[in-house]
Amino acid sequence: MSHNNSVNVTHIYKQFGNKTAVKDISFTIKHGEIFGLLGPNGAGKTTIIRMMTTLLHQDTGRILLNGYDTSTQSRLARQQFSVTGQSAAVDQDLTARENLMIFGKLNGLNHAAAHTRTTELLTDFDLINSADQTLATFSGGMRRRLDLAISLIGKPAILFLDEPTTGLDPRTRKQVWQAVRKLAAAGSTVLLTTQYLEEADHLADRIALIDHGQMIALGTPSELKQQVGGLQLRLEVPDTQRVSQAQQIIQEILTLPVNVNDRTLTALLGNVKIQLVTQVLQQLQAAAVPISNFAIEAPTLDDVFLKLTVGKN
Question: Residue 233's closest CA among 197, 279, 196?
């Protein structure tokens, strides 16, 4: 069967009692794409994953994985994917290598194939030096990388990653990102849920922004940033006494609201002329207001998130 998309989600709803957890969500994911479901805790991301992985039935709507319907062909649909959760059912007293070998065989690989795949994954996930230590000695980050390795042992067509880097240190988080990118490059389709904007920004080809069970926006990270409206001006006033003076000067010249956070001032420029920004600098200098870290930059996903979810609550 040839299907252009790995995943088709069409108008799914899910109600728990009188609370609608997921409300009319639709999206498609292309083969080899990394797709991010981004939203705060309790937004409905996990409920969506549970429906996609056949653990929950949607009330209405349809989900196809490589063309198989999760409701009517759940067994075939289940063969299309693998899930990495917060922890796989691994044995603490065995080594990383032994755990991978077991899961390889559970996935139908013979001894030689399981061995080859195990070595490959241990190398990919930077676990080869600790391959023969028991899991009891592993740090949280090593455990997470092993979980990811285990979920990939059968080279799944579709991989579901539910909050894969929650609680990890920055270095390990980047290692997990690297592993995910490598996967997608090798042709797996990845669906990732996260509450980290930076993670979605770095990893996802496209992002669906979910809040209160509804889809608020869908697009590439840069498309979502454009929705916020152009560039923003950011600068710091090292002298706390002078912050409000700087704020007034900027507001008067740009006739725009200026956001103050501690000593950092930001203003969304929209379609403001750059000459005005130059004028802001001149005025601040004339008033002898000290400034540092002056920048004109594209808004971050944080800005998108605030703008799109604000007032919805």
Answer: 279
> Could you give the CA distance from residue 260 to residue 303 in angstroms, rounded to a whole number?
14
Chain segment 4-22, per-residue pLDDT in tens = 789 999 999 999 999 999 9
> CA 38 → CA 13, 41, 192, 260, 304, distances in Å?
18, 10, 8, 26, 12
Look up residue 275 and give its two tokens: 């000459």
Q: How far apart are CA 55 and CA 48, in angstroms?
A: 10
The domain segmentation of the chain, as residue ranges, is 5-221, 231-297
Q: Distance (Å, rounded) from C-alpha 167 to C-alpha 302? A: 19
Tokens coding 112: 């030689």
231-297 in CATH: which number? 3.30.70.3220
pLDDT in tens, 114-173: 999 999 999 988 899 999 999 999 988 888 889 888 988 888 899 999 888 888 888 888
Domain 5-221: CATH superfamily is P-loop containing nucleotide triphosphate hydrolases (3.40.50.300)
Q: What are phi and psi of 34, to 5 degrees?
A: -100, 115
